[in-house]
Amino acid sequence: MRAFFSDDQLLHQPRQFMRAGRLCEPTDVPARAAALQATLATRGIDLAVAPDYGRAPLETVHSAAYLDFLCEAYERWQALARPGFEPGVEVLPNLSPYHNGKLDQNRRPDCPTDSVIAQAGYYLGDLSCPLGPHSWRSILRSAHSAVAAADYVCEQGDGGMAYALCRPSGHHAHSDRAGGFCYVNNAAIAAQGLLKRFGKVAVLDVDAHHGDGTQQIFYQRSDVMTISLHADPAGYYPFYTGYANERGYGAGYGYNLNFPLPHGTGDAGFLAALDSALDALRDYRPQALVLSLGFDTYVDDPISVLAVGMDGYRGIGERIHALGVPTVVVQEGGYEVDAIGHALDTFLSGFAPAMA
Ligand SMILES: [Zn+2]
Question: How far is CA 159 from CA 209, 288, 325, in A?
Fold first, then answer.
């Protein structure tokens, strides 16, 4: 097993995000990555730096206009400065995007204006995705960690497994829209990478939040099945999607499954839902798997509404191990810095027992 991370992923240092009308201290702090790195080191897992693949792998799931925006927005934002007007220190929208709810349309047209203010509203879906001076570099390198992990599993074939320490996370990123601390969909990019060798791939998302971006990207496709377990979105981000009746569209119908869980669900309830999800996954017979692994399901996570504990993470690891499918684990959320290292360690004790 190999793990991938680049120190460039620490450069993104968000200063603020909006929660219920209040600008708050960021939760996606660089210290999260350090906690996860420490766990990998104590388990003797090699942490490699991904090669620089450029933009090509990101373009397999994102529109070029959206990536242009992410790459250039900070400098263009600073250029808004005029005598008597200073733009904010980060790119943050002051408009709300139009959400038409049409699941049969998996991509919008490019933003019809080149105003950076209009584009910030169009491409940054909420106020949790500020772009600072080094954000793009971290976003790009986080995606590269996922690409390298997928490449490694492609090389290894049967029994291959890798962990991508992705930060920023990715599963809320749509093909042309950032959201929920996510800019580029690392798990979707890893799934595309696995398709280079494997004919059928599944993405299983066990983060506390619905993997709405991953769902949107593959909603009309049958070569990548998407399954997400998450807190009931009726009262939790991302609110608009993640319901059980979202099954896919067109050729993708039947290849998207959501398991919204009652708030307060603990280990037993979470693992029971995971067993149901894995039954569906086995019926699909994927040749490779991407696991979107989040630890914001943790009972003491600052934004959690679930109550998963360390036994739950071990149980998740054991079940994915038992699947026996080549797997790329992609890190998603998890914001209790003092707990996520332990959570990863416990997950790995089940997922990679030979390395315990
Ligand atoms: Zn999350």
Answer: 29, 10, 7
Report the alpha-carbon distance of residue 49 to residue 45 in Å, rounded: 13
The catalytic residue among 12, 144, 171, 172 is 172
Please give the order of strands across the beta sheet that includes 47-48: 47-48, 2-4, 161-164, 327-331, 288-293, 201-205, 224-231, 256-261
| Domain limits, the chain | 2-52+143-355
Superfamily of domain 2-52+143-355: Histone deacetylase domain (3.40.800.20)
Question: Does the active-site annotation cover 210?
Answer: no
Verdict on whether the full-model pTM lies above 0.90: yes
H-run or E-run covering 162: strand 161-164
Q: How far is the CA of 169 from the centre of ligand 1 (A)?
A: 9
Distance from residue 20's CA to the centre of ligand 1 (Å): 17
Residue that has been written with the tokens 């499918």 in this structure? 325
Burial 276-285 (b: 16+ CB within 10 A, else e): ebbebbeeee
Over its length of 356 residues, how does the chain's per-residue pLDDT go in tens digits?
999 999 999 999 999 888 888 888 999 999 999 999 999 999 999 899 999 999 999 999 999 999 999 999 999 999 999 999 999 999 998 767 666 667 667 778 899 999 999 999 999 998 899 999 999 999 999 999 999 999 999 999 999 999 999 999 999 999 999 999 999 999 999 999 999 999 999 999 999 999 999 999 999 999 999 999 999 999 999 999 999 999 999 999 999 999 999 999 999 999 999 999 999 999 999 999 999 999 999 999 999 999 999 999 999 999 999 999 999 999 999 999 999 999 999 999 999 987 65
CA of 221 to the centre of ligand 1 (A): 24
Distance CA 188, CA 330 (A): 10
Nearby residues for ligand 1 (ion, Cβ within 5 Å): 207-209, 294, 296, 333
